[in-house]
Amino acid sequence: MELPYRMLVLDLDGTALGRDPAQFAPGVLAACEAAAARGAEVVFATGRPRTHLPPDVRPGALPWLRYLVLNDGAQVWDRQTGEGLWLQQVPPDALDRVAAVSGRCRVPVEYIDAAGVYHVPEQALESLLQADAPVSAFHRNILRTSARPFAGSPAQFAPEHIVKINMPCVPADRWDAVCTALEAAGVLPMECCAGALEITSPKAGKREAVRFVAQRLGFGLDAVMALGDSGNDAALLQAAGLGVAMGNASETAKQAADAVTAPNYEGGAAAAIHRWLLG
Questions:
Q1: pLDDT, tens only, 38-62
Q2: Do strands 196-200 and 162-167 pair parallel, antiparallel, or not at all (unpaired)?
Q3: Cα–Cα dist 242/93, whole Å
Q4: What was the pLDDT predicted at 48?
C-alpha cells in the first residue's frame, strides 16, 4: 500500500532521541527503517552540526538515511556522496550586529562555522563552562571539545562561513527584547529549548532546507510528514503535509502542528510514525 507521505523528517533532540542525547528513543530507528523500506525518504533535521551527531549516525551506519539537515537548516549534507548540497551562512555584515545585541542585553553568544567549530568570546566561554551555568552537561561538553575562545569582532570568522549562532542562556525578562533586536539585526532567531535561542540566516531554517531536499526529489512540502518539539521546528511543522509535535514540545511547536504524540522519552516518535505513516 502506498504511504500517505513521501518524506519523513525527524528532529533529533527532544524528538527522535530519548533522555540521553546520544541515544535514539526506543523503536525510532526501527520505525524509520520500516518507512524507508516502503519507499519514504527519511531525513534527520537537527540544530546540531555534523561533528556532533549521535553515534548511530556515524558514517556507514543507517544505509537508508541519505540526507541530513544540519545547523537548523543552514546546511544540507548528502551522506551517500559525502558532499554539502546547501549552505546558508549568516550574513557577514550581521555578525557585529549580533555581537552588539549580545553585549547590550548581557547574554553570552557562540558562533558556529560550517566545519562545526564553536567560536566563543573569551569571557562568555569562561562563564558557560562554569558548573553553575544554565546550560546542559551535553552542551558544556561540546564547548569543552569544540570551542575556540576569541577576542575582537566575530566578523573575522566570515571566511569560515558562520552558519549558526547560539545564545544558550537568555533570561526570561530579556527574551522579547533580544528576539526583537536580533530580527532588526537581519537574522532569524528561533527558540530551541527553554531560555535558549538558535540564530541563522533568514534564508535558512528547517522548513527551507527540507523544501530544498523535497524539491530535489520532485515533490513539495505537502508530501512531508515532520516531527519536532521546539520553536526551531515550528515553521516546518506548520508547512508540512502533516506536522506532529511531541508531547514534551513547547507550546510554539504544538500550536504549529496538526497533531501531538507522546513525549520523546515515551516513544512518541515511533508511535507517530506507525500511526500516521505506516498505518
A1: 999 999 999 999 999 999 999 889 9
A2: antiparallel
A3: 37
A4: 96
